[in-house]
Design a protein that fits this description.
Blueprint (H helix, E strand, L loop, with lengths): L3 E4 L3 H13 L3 E7 L6 H5 L2 E6 L10 H11 L3 E3 L9 H9 L3 E2 L4 H8 L1 H10 L15 H11 L3 E9 L2 E6 L5 H16 L4 E5 L5 E9 L5 E13 L2 E7 L2 H4 L4 H15 L4 E9 L5 E7 L6 H8 L3 H9 L16 E8 L1 E2 L5 E2 L2 E3 L1 E3 L6 E5 L5 E3 L6 E9 L2 H14 L1 E3 L5 H9 L1 H4 L7 H6 L4
Parallel strand pairs: 1-2, 1-4, 2-3, 4-5
Antiparallel strand pairs: 6-7, 6-8, 9-10, 9-12, 10-11, 11-14, 12-13, 14-21, 15-16, 17-20, 18-22, 19-21
Helix pairs in contact: 4-5, 13-14
Bound molecules: adenosine-5'-diphosphate (ADP).
Length: about 450
């Protein structure tokens, strides 16, 4: 095992990685921006290195500063968390060149899966169903128009390098296609440095269901079942759960999804923790959309129902250990729900609401876990994603997990910050949630009063 690991991230995930390292007797190095001095992840780590001013380009995305911090402190490995540099193949490559272990898959695999067109091709070649659409990049508008007619509207135009819901446009009729193609090309180029676009059929009323996989460096891999992530706003997940009630009630679907995820991961020689994402139609037909070559925000619901410490395994696998878990060791225990707590105002179109936290008393109790990057007397700054903490509720059944989550949301004291806490509580009480009758568009419709 490593003796010292640097965490190239911030907030709740950096805080949590520090704790996993501590529990394994591994020294931790935090890096932080000027805006994050004194935050819990910085205080909890054994060492902390200031890497730059608040804007991410000058701090958390500053590869030179992060690698210098690793060299200075003698860290042998870097955990990138999620977001930021976690899916940056160039950074993974630089780590390798400097003899520092990047805790994740190889740069080549990140590159291959980071290009969504290449990822589709790889998945299809491995026999995994992909959404009907273009075989490769779309070069000209006439080809796009002909293909869209052939697969049928509505279609989605997507940027090959896209992520976080950015660089994606839903097109309902032919007259709107040209504009969507142009805007996705522009968005891909400006946000991801890649103007390549492709086309997919829009699966109506779909669910977003993803499968967690874990592979060691010796070719052994397992899946850890699925997560239901259909409750989204602006293509961003808000509430996630495991297992998926829809999968549980559709015979054969779980086995098929998990096998497909393993096949996609095997096809590229995947290593470490990864997630294969699918859209699933109301009939239970499923299609690969992308693979995330990193830890997901929502990984704790999987940890809760399987009892597997995913970050712990990420470290072991990166250090070369054999994954000693067999598929038959993994089973589903009850149900778990995650709610993302944001500093935002639901009454004002969910605008981010940075501010000062005076009192912060997270909930506790049976089956409750809070992964948080904040504490009392701390500032939520406008520089970063406004997610401040995640609530995890685990119980013997979905009903039990839901009532634990609702009680915890009621008890949570975060003052005087404006958050979506009450909104989350309300959603968990809605019929659509209780009966699990929702698709990826439900939450957006609900917010607009149209659900
Ligand atoms: P990103 O990498 O930006 O998150 P994804 O390809 O994962 O983009 O898609 C984001 C979300 O958009 C998915 O969670 C799903 O809800 C929806 N989506 C993506 N592709 C399709 C599709 N072909 N049909 C319907 N919904 C889709």
């Amino acid at each position: 095992m490593f003796k010292k690991v640097l965490i190239a991230n911030r907030g709740e995930i950096a805080h949590r990685i520090v704790h996993v390292l501590k529990s394994r007797g591994v020294a931790s190095v935090a890096v932080y921006s000027e805006a994050d001095a004194g935050t819990p992840h910085v205080k909890a780590a054994d060492e902390a290195v200031l890497i730059g001013p608040a804007p991410v380009a000058q701090s958390y995305l500053n590869q030179d500063a992060i690698l210098a911090a690793a060299r200075e402190t003698g860290a042998e490995a870097i955990h990138p968390g999620y977001g930021l540099l976690s899916e940056n193949a160039g950074f993974a490559r630089r780590c390798a060149e400097e003899g520092i272990v990047f805790i994740g898959p190889t740069a080549e695999v990140i590159e291959q899966m980071g290009d969504k067109v290449a990822a589709r091709t790889t998945a299809a070649a491995a026999g995994v169903p992909v959404v009907p659409g273009s075989d490769g990049p779309i070069d000209d508008d006439d080809t796009a128009a002909a293909l869209a007619e052939q697969i049928g509207y509505p279609v989605l135009v997507k940027a090959a390098g896209g992520g976080g819901g950015i660089g994606m446009a839903l097109v309902k009729k032919p007259t709107k296609l040209a504009r969507a193609l142009a805007s996705c090309r522009d968005r891909g180029a400006s946000s991801f440095g890649n103007p390549t676009i492709y086309l997919e059929k829009f699966i109506e009323q779909p669910r977003h269901i993803e499968v967690q996989v874990l592979f060691d460096q010796h070719g052994h891999g397992i899946h850890l079942f699925e997560r239901e992530c259909s409750l989204q706003r602006r293509h961003q997940k808000v509430i996630e759960e495991a297992p998926s009630p829809f999968v549980s009630s559709t015979p054969g679907l779980r086995e098929a999804l998990c096998e497909a995820a393993l096949a996609a991961a095997r096809a590229i020689g995947y290593r470490n923790a990864g997630t294969v994402e699918f859209v699933v139609s109301p009939d239970g037909d499923f299609y690969f959309i992308e693979m995330n070559t990193r830890l997901q925000v929502e990984h704790p619901v999987t940890e809760a129902i399987t009892g597997v410490d995913l970050i712990g395994w990420q470290l072991d696998i990166a250090a070369g250990a054999h994954l000693t878990l067999a598929q038959s060791d993994i089973s589903i225990d009850g149900a778990a729900i995650e709610c993302r707590l944001y500093a935002e105002d639901p009454a004002k179109r969910f605008l981010p609401r940075p501010g000062h936290i005076e009192r912060f008393v997270p909930p506790a109790g049976e089956g409750i876990r809070v992964d948080s990057g904040v504490g009392p007397d701390q500032e939520i700054t406008p520089y970063y994603d406004p997610m401040i903490a995640k609530l995890l509720a685990h119980g013997p059944s979905r009903e039990a997990a839901t009532s634990r989550a609702r009680a915890a949301l009621e008890a949570w004291v975060i003052e005087p910050l404006t958050t979506n806490r009450v909104f989350l509580h309300q959603v968990l009480g809605e019929d659509a949630f209780v009966t699990a009758q929702f698709d990826t568009g439900w939450l957006e419709r609900y917010v607009k009063g149209k659900a």
